[in-house]
């Protein structure tokens, strides 16, 4: 409704990443430069981290769009918590290798597929692992081993790890020193500044046909930055609702009051969702529950064994006792 009323070709603040609306902020331009530099080395790892909604996926979409005409084979895996064998299975499927069997068979299939790709087309092969912050150490080690496989003097595979800030803490572990030594470029996506938030909003709207109607108050855009923290996805969510509210009121100017009211409504909506959701179960709670469940099962089995033994003793006594005794 908002984009038709204001004359936009399409919604300017969709939540889905859209490479056509890529905004070259300072941090995103530097992150993209780090990606390109790392990939130009044709080996090792490239790491990009950022908060949820900071624009990591948009960077990858832009990279894939640019490389689609340059020849590299890019495979993508999205994962959060996947054990080593399951991760290898996902990698195998991404490179059209057999995904059956144990770890040894999976590794053989992946390496064979990588070598086949080089032999048939001589194309570079890049694996992008998104949401990598919760990968177990064993899974990261499998990726390191794959990145070590070479054909002649060249690595068969280069790996890009994308994840939330926790990924940096994981990679800092002492037992991942060998992987860290293979990281050729790393960058953390920070939030947009207040000035860049202004430019980001105007860029998104101009990209879909905005010519100044509706207008934005400067203070309104200041509030957008304040409420979103400069995180692009949060900016999109807030601005989409502001445009909707403005459309419903036929507003020619989007004011600070409108942004403030809309931000409060969003917080209330999220508050209702959080209040209705069950409380999260911590890892410690899950472990305690599991231990209690196991103990309960043990007690039930013990009681069952004792009951069966008592019944057997009663039966045996009945067979041994004299008729007079049984009476």
Task: Please outline the helices and strands.
Layout: H1 2-5, H2 26-40, E1 45-50, H3 56-67, E2 73-78, H4 84-94, H5 103-121, E3 125-130, H6 137-148, E4 150-151, E5 154-155, E6 158-163, H7 166-171, H8 177-180, E7 183-189, H9 194-206, E8 215-216, H10 218-228, H11 232-248, E9 253-254, H12 256-276, H13 283-320, H14 323-326
Parallel strand pairs: 1-6, 1-7, 2-3, 3-6, 8-9
Antiparallel strand pairs: 4-5
Helix pairs in contact: 4-5, 4-6, 9-10, 10-11, 10-12, 11-12
Domain AAA+ ATPase: 42-206
GO molecular function, one term: ATP hydrolysis activity
Organism: Vineibacter terrae
| CATH homologous superfamily (4th level) name of the largest domain | P-loop containing nucleotide triphosphate hydrolases
CATH C-level class of the largest domain is: Alpha Beta
- CATH level-3 fold name of the largest domain: Rossmann fold
Count of helix runs:
14
Strand order of the largest sheet: 2-3-6-1-7
């Amino acid at each position: 409704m908002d984009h038709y009323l204001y004359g936009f070709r399409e919604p300017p603040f969709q939540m889905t990443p859209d490479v056509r609306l890529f905004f070259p902020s300072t941090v995103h331009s530097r992150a993209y430069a780090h990606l390109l530099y790392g990939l130009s080395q044709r080996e090792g790892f490239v790491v990009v981290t950022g908060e949820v909604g900071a624009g990591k996926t948009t960077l990858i979409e832009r990279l894939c769009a640019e490389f689609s005409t340059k020849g590299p084979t890019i495979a993508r895996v999205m994962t959060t918590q996947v054990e080593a064998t399951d991760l290898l299975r996902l990698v195998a499927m991404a490179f059209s290798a057999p995904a059956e069997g144990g770890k040894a068979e999976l590794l053989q299939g992946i390496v064979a597929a990588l070598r086949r790709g080089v032999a048939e087309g001589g194309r570079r092969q890049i694996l992008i692992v998104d949401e990598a912050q919760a990968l177990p150490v064993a899974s990261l080690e499998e990726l390191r081993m794959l990145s070590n496989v070479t054909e002649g003097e060249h690595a068969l595979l280069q790996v890009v790890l994308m994840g939330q800030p926790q990924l940096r803490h994981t990679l800092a572990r002492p037992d991942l020193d060998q992987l860290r030594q293979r990281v050729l470029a790393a960058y953390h996506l920070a939030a947009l500044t207040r000035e860049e938030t202004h430019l980001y909003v105007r860029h998104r709207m101009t990209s879909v046909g905005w010519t100044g109607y509706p207008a934005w108050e400067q203070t309104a855009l200041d509030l957008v930055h304040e409420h979103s923290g400069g995180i692009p996805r949060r900016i999109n969510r807030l601005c989409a609702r502001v445009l909707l509210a403005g459309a419903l009121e036929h507003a020619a100017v989007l004011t600070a009051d409108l942004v403030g009211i809309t931000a409060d409504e969003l917080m209330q909506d999220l508050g209702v969702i959080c209040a209705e959701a069950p409380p999260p179960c911590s890892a410690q709670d899950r472990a305690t529950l599991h231990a209690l469940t196991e103990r309960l099962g043990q007690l039930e089995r013990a009681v069952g064994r004792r009951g069966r033994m008592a019944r057997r003793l009663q039966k045996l006594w009945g067979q041994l006792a004299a008729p007079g005794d049984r009476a």
